UniProtKB/TrEMBL annotation:
<keyword id="KW-0238">DNA-binding</keyword>
<dbReference type="InterPro" id="IPR001387">
    <property type="entry name" value="Cro/C1-type_HTH"/>
</dbReference>
<dbReference type="GO" id="GO:0003677">
    <property type="term" value="F:DNA binding"/>
</dbReference>
<dbReference type="InterPro" id="IPR010982">
    <property type="entry name" value="Lambda_DNA-bd_dom_sf"/>
</dbReference>
<feature type="domain" description="HTH cro/C1-type">
    <location>
        <begin position="17"/>
        <end position="71"/>
    </location>
</feature>
<protein>
    <submittedName>
        <fullName>XRE family transcriptional regulator</fullName>
    </submittedName>
</protein>
<dbReference type="InterPro" id="IPR049639">
    <property type="entry name" value="RstR"/>
</dbReference>
<dbReference type="Pfam" id="PF01381">
    <property type="entry name" value="HTH_3"/>
</dbReference>
Length: 123
């Protein structure tokens, strides 16, 4: 199982879909039927010539019993870098009130950053 998970982490969405479908013992037609799609569309997804919609990704995740994140992202894309991970660990050891303050500070900085980023795109 660990080898299978390791293989999933270095694959594209198309490759993950093929691998998960086969692991579940589904044919392309069976997956298409479960997703309510035409067989041709599943073949396009697996070939990487078409990208699934959000609705299709959600149905795939439910059918294959995985998270949508595991279909879309490489694991390192979802994890903080080492410095942030250590800082988050330090915050998790703080009393609840101090954690609340740190979370508010972070939220304020994130909102400020996003607002600046979006305002610079509209110029």
């Amino acid at each position: 199982m660990a080898t299978f998970i390791t293989r999933l982490t270095t694959m594209s969405i198309a490759q993950r879909l093929v691998s998960l479908r086969k692991q579940k013992g589904l044919t392309q037609q069976a997956l298409a039927d479960a997703l309510g799609l035409h067989l041709t569309q599943v073949k396009r997804y697996e070939a990487g010539t078409s990208q699934p919609s959000l609705d299709a990704l959600k149905k795939m995740a439910q059918t294959l019993r995985v998270t949508t994140d595991s279909l879309i992202f490489e694991p390192e894309e979802l994890e903080p870098d080492e410095d942030l991970r250590l800082q988050f660990q330090a915050v998790s050891n703080m009393p609840a009130e101090e954690q609340r303050i740190v979370k508010q500070l972070l939220e304020g900085m994130i909102i400020k950053y996003e607002a600046e980023r979006w305002s610079s795109k509209t110029r």
